[in-house]
């Protein structure tokens, strides 16, 4: 059980543990054994992820099939906040010197935020030319016109 901080569980295993803690089906001792983690690291994980656990619990009450319950990235505001932090970090690096790859990353992040917010126009695929204009007039007998 060699664990540094709460790094014993990450990614999907972290989500799994958050959801198990939210569901309160298994006792903590069983979860500590399952995740092979010491008592202190386990309870530190609970403290550090309390908000996510509570959100997952609330989501489970509302929708037992909510697969993203407890994932901060599932919330638009959280994703945008991460983009903002990345952009601020890039701006600090750009203050030191202009780096074209950083500018591309910054512009990609800004575009992603605009997409998240629905600020970009929807681009439709070009319509294939049918070869001519067809006009249909209702209420006129075509035979009478010929």
Q: What is the C-alpha radius of gyration, as a whole number of Å?
A: 27 Å
- Report the helical percentage: 55-70%
- Estimate the strand proportion: under 5%
Detail the poorly predicted runs: 1-5
Q: Number of DSSP helices?
A: 7
Q: What is the average of the pLDDT values? A: 82
Describe this protein with a few key phrases.
elongated, mainly alpha, 7 helices, disordered N terminus, 2 domains, 146 residues
Detailed description of the structure:
It is a single chain. The protein has 146 residues and is mainly alpha-helical. It folds into 2 domains: 11-72; 75-117. The protein contains 7 helices and no strands.
Brief summary of the model shown:
This protein has 146 residues and is mostly helical.
Write the layout of secondary structure elements.
Blueprint: H1 11-23, H2 28-34, H3 39-48, H4 50-62, H5 76-96, H6 100-117, H7 142-145
Helix pairs in contact: 1-4, 5-6
């Amino acid at each position: 059980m060699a664990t540094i901080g709460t790094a014993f569980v990450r990614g999907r295993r972290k989500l799994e543990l958050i959801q198990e803690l939210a569901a309160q089906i298994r006792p903590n001792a069983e979860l500590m054994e399952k995740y092979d983690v010491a008592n202190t690291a386990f309870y530190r994980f609970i403290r550090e992820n309390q908000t996510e656990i509570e959100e997952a619990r609330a989501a489970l009450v509302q929708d037992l099939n909510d697969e993203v319950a407890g994932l901060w990235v599932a919330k638009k505001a959280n994703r945008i906040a991460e983009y903002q932090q990345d952009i601020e970090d890039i701006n600090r690096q750009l203050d030191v010197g202009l780096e074209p790859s950083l500018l591309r990353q910054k512009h990609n992040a800004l575009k992603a935020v605009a997409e998240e917010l629905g600020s970009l126009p929807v681009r439709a695929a070009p319509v294939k030319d049918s070869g001519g204009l067809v006009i249909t007039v209702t209420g006129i007998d075509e035979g009478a016109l010929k």
